[in-house]
Amino acid sequence: MRFHVLTLFPSMFESPFAESLIARARRNGLVEILTYDVRAHAETPRSVDDYAFGGGPGMVMKPEPVFEAVEAARKAGARGAPIVLLSPRGRRLTQTVVQNLAACDNLTMICGRYEGVDERVRLHLATDEISIGDFVLSGGELAAMVLIDSVSRLIPGVVGSTESTRNDSFTTGLLQYPQYTRPAEYRGWRVPEVLLSGNHGEIARWRREESLRITLASRPDLLETVRLSDDDRTILKKLEAGSQP
Ligand SMILES: C[S@@+](CC[C@H](N)C(=O)[O-])C[C@H]1O[C@@H](n2cnc3c(N)ncnc32)[C@H](O)[C@@H]1O
Fold it and tell me: Does residue 138 sit in the same domain as residue 80?
């Protein structure tokens, strides 16, 4: 997967992807992150933004350098690829959106700054508009990084075992069960006995119950769309009634 990122601050993308999983994926050629300095596509380095027509505080990113930078990305292989404008107005980023984007070979992202980007970029250049949540960042760079990280995890070979991404929160439709590692006892807090039992059937059942319990407590809205088995429904009824399943 090749990510093409249009930004006024390309160096922001260096250190977050120089460590751990994504760094290894880059070394192995599974992920490529190409940044395009929007300033380099402006008439002068200082002419990337201008006052808003109609007045008001703050500056707006001009359309020309953004269109030009996208053209450079197209020449580098992004022709035909989705062009995502990061914006608080966009559709909300979810694991389903991430899964769909992970099927692309190239993905172009436009990071806004200041008051945002000239509307003509949204209307005539971007093919998608994504928000990472109902809050306002200073720029689209952190949102683009969230997108790069979450999408990269789903590229085969990036995470060691595909089982771990299959069991992730949201991928199953539920939140994930609690995880424990050694020691089996720490400061008197013992790991649930079932996890030490070696009984894989019991462990799977405990994990499913815990996923349902945590989802019911923290994100009951997810239960409206997930496919539930008869066993799941019985467990949920007991949980809702306040008894142990
Ligand atoms: C300060 S914000 C502009 C906010 C804009 N004035 C508004 O009220 O919607 C600058 C840039 O940060 C990015 N940004 C801010 N919040 C975001 C979010 N929740 N998701 C994705 N991008 C965001 C966008 O690229 C945006 O153009």
Answer: yes
Edge-first strand listing for the sheet containing 106-110:
32-37, 2-7, 106-110, 83-92, 128-131
Q: What mean pLDDT is reported for the chain?
A: 97
Three-class DSSP category at 240: helix
Distance CA 218, CA 143 (A): 24
Maximum CA extent, the chain: 69
**Cα gap 245→240, rounded to integer Å:** 10
pTM for this predicted structure:
0.95
Say if CB 162 and CB 33 are below 8 A apart. Answer: no
Tokens of 10: 């390309």
Q: Is 7 in the pocket of ligand 1 (CB under 6 A)?
A: no
Quote the number of domains for the chain: 2
d(CA 138, ligand 1 centre) in Å? 6
Q: What is the pLDDT of residues 185-231, one digit of tens each?
A: 999 999 999 999 999 999 999 999 999 999 999 999 999 999 999 99
Pairwise CA distance, residues 108 & 35, whole Å: 10
Whether the CB of 140 sits within 6 Å of ligand 1: yes
Whether residues 236 and 121 share a domain: the answer is: no
Per-residue model confidence as pLDDT tens digits over 59-89: 999 999 999 999 999 999 999 999 999 999 9
**Would you say how long the chain is, in residues?**
245
